[in-house]
Design a protein that fits this description.
- It is a single chain.
- The protein has a single domain (40-171), classed as Four Helix Bundle (Hemerythrin (Met), subunit A) (Up-down Bundle).
- Helix content is 86%, strand content 0%.
- It has helices at residues 2-72, 75-81, 85-107, 111-125, 127-136, 142-171.
- α1 runs parallel beside α5 and α5 (127-136) runs antiparallel to α6 (142-171).
Length: 181
């Protein structure tokens, strides 16, 4: 009878140990899967932020180049400009920037990054009415119109930099072995 109880107790502990091992393995697998999902999300956000940064810099560089020309254009010239290679490139860069901003807004819930993106978006949304309208307004001296556009570009570059600064802690990854965020 003692050997029967010894066999039952041994069997119980063996099954308990096996089930405990399975439970630990499943928890570890779940934890690793969650870490993989988080890193995948950070990777998507990193990619969207790189796209936003590059598109923003290119858009603002081109805008800075063409703003003085806008100030000298008639409305007819301005409308014709849209059909030129430079006009189409300008529109493509603006579309790339808008797409990148949308991606970042959807990928991050961080309030700091969301606020910085909202500020940038606010500046960009006012471009057509405010900045282009001012540049084409012949009632003001050309110098004032160009200075206004340059101030807008300075503020927009600062807002783009603020997005990049807010994003750094969210997307940093450790490259040292054994360390992760």
């Amino acid at each position: 009878m003692n050997s029967l109880w010894a066999a039952v107790i041994t069997g119980f502990f063996a099954v308990s140990g096996a089930l405990g091992g399975v439970l630990i393995t499943q928890r570890q697998a779940t934890r690793l899967a969650e870490l993989d999902r988080q890193e995948g999300r950070r990777s998507e956000l990193r990619s969207a932020l790189v796209d936003l940064s590059i598109a923003g810099a290119r858009y603002l560089d081109l805008y800075e180049t063409i703003a003085p020309a806008y100030a000298q254009m008639s409305v007819k010239d301005f409308l014709e400009f849209a059909g030129t290679d430079s006009g189409q490139e300008f529109r493509r860069l603006r579309d790339d920037l808008s797409r990148s901003i949308t991606q970042v807004r959807f990928l991050s819930a961080d309030p700091g990054l969301q606020g910085a993106v909202a500020e940038l978006l606010g500046l960009l949304d006012g471009t057509t009415e405010t900045v282009n309208g001012k540049l084409l307004n012949r009632d003001e001296p050309i110098v004032e119109r160009v200075v206004f556009a340059r101030d807008y570009l300075r503020r927009t570059r600062a807002a783009l930099h603020q997005v990049e600064t807010a994003a750094v802690p969210l997307v940093q990854t450790s490259i040292e072995v054994g360390q992760s965020k």
